[in-house]
Design a protein that fits this description.
Immunoglobulin-like, mainly beta, 5-stranded antiparallel beta sheet, 5-stranded mixed beta sheet, 5 domains
Amino acid sequence: MHVSSKSSFLFLFAFAAIIGIYSCANRGLGPTGGPKDLTPPVVLKITPPDKTTNFHGTRVEVQFNKIVQLDHPLDKIVISPPQMKQPSAVSTGRRVTVTLNDSLKSNTTYTIDFDGSIKDYNEGNVLKHFTTSFSTGTAIDSMQVGGVLLDARNLNPVPEVLTGIYSNLADSAFTHLPMLRIGKTSETGHFAILGIKPGTYRVYALKDMDGDYKFSQPGEGIAFDESPIHTSFKMDVYNDTIRKDSVTIDTIKQVPYVHYMPDTLMLLYFHEDFFRQRLVKAERPTSDKVMLYFSAPNDTLPHLQPLGFQWKTPPLLQQSLHKDTLTYWFTDTLAAKTDTLRFVLHYAKSDSIGKLVSAFDTLLLRRHDIQRSKIMKKEPKLRKGEKPPKPVIETAKIQTNIVQTMEMDEPIRLSFVSPVLETDSAKIHLYQKVDSLWKPVHFTFHKDDDVGLSFTITYLYQPDESFKLVIDSAAFRDLHRLWSDKYQQAFKVRALEEYSSLIIRLANPMPHVVFELLDGNDQVLRTMKEQADNKSTFQYVMPGTYYLRLFVDSNDNGKWDTGDFAKKIEPEKVYYFPEKIVLRVNWDVEEDWNPTAIPLYKQKPKILIKKETTPTSQGGY
């Protein structure tokens, strides 16, 4: 068979083109650069070398094996003793330079903790636990102390907070002098303070808001321990595990090291109860009430003085739970009908240093609902022959929490839009269904607030029984002289077989204990004071997974209280049950608990621990 030269040429050209296209298509599939670099930068050289003595320079330079960058150096690099003049830190290629702008103290060990501030430029691998030191004297001080900082209220680790020591053991040192040596807490709340001379010290933590390294502002978060600590050390060993691979251990070596103590300090972080008092807002949302919003609770009630008019009858005063919101309900109908009212408010206000001083503001308050009320009052246009609608008779509306199935320990709650001024409890009836007949039962009726917006009906229910609440018409009369309508609602109480119970016994009973039942988000579902005979029971709990916490209510006020440094009052102690608690249907679960058997930092179940950039531990819980 004969093939022409032209055909051969075309064949070879086509073949070469195919090979070329294939090669081009696979260039992107060539070498991938190997596995991703996961190693942090390696220190090659430090100038001056670590633990240099008699150093009097102002710059420390570190060279690495790869190009590096700094991540928030002003926040993460910690220099001890603290520098009153802000140091500078820059990265250039494979080099990081720290310049000390403050004058150096004589015969002093300086430490620079870079922990977490240096990472490689390409992959962002972070260099952790890197510290260098030098001394302006003839020796390096090598003592160190360590521990963990926890939020006093919820035992979460508290990151990014200064910790420091004082050789001056007086309480005034913390408020008048900068810390002697400092460290900073990690993401897990752990801290180490390095380069300490042997001696006796007091340890503190401080969320330093003004950069003076002392507790100088009431809003700064703090932690303190009344007991001084004494530095010490001993020779110790740790196990160094050498592996053949990720699952096989080759050998375990015991490596000697110097163990500095104390290294298990426990500091509890909190904010004091301090708020600058000021008027945040004043408004008149409806014709019959004025609302005043303050930035802090009111120990002394303000005085709302009418300007240009006089009250015919004084208003009703409603205070919020924390007494930082005040609502004045008008009983004076003429004032309520006036579109714009003027007042002078006399109240206590914080000055520039936080001291309460007398102040007054003039308030001009116009009804927010005035335009809406005018629109609603417009008469509708009627078509030819159409009769006007019958007037709607306004009544005081009763709202309740009654649902088809009520819980055994859930009272009936009545609420109203406007304060109730008159109540006829004889027109309120609670019935239980017995053999298909509704029989009346005796109950307790209670007003819950200052002005009559809410009421409670309590009765010791029988489980799995049917009840009915009947309220006759005109049982209540509100601020606008409106009577309530008739109300009727039946419900059934949940059967005991649907519940579970949690019984708690403390191995070492403590006084003033309050238990808190928590959900999976660390939120309080129910509270209970410790009961007699060391057998405290959460009854009528729906089956599910729960967690448990207690606090020692030292002043028996029913709530957790924060600390006060000036009064040497620490936050009330908090403990967590270290495991989840699973409650099953129709089952009593009993737990024996020794709150002090496990260190605080190991108590809280991991699922509840939240990383907090802004600690929350302050009063008002």
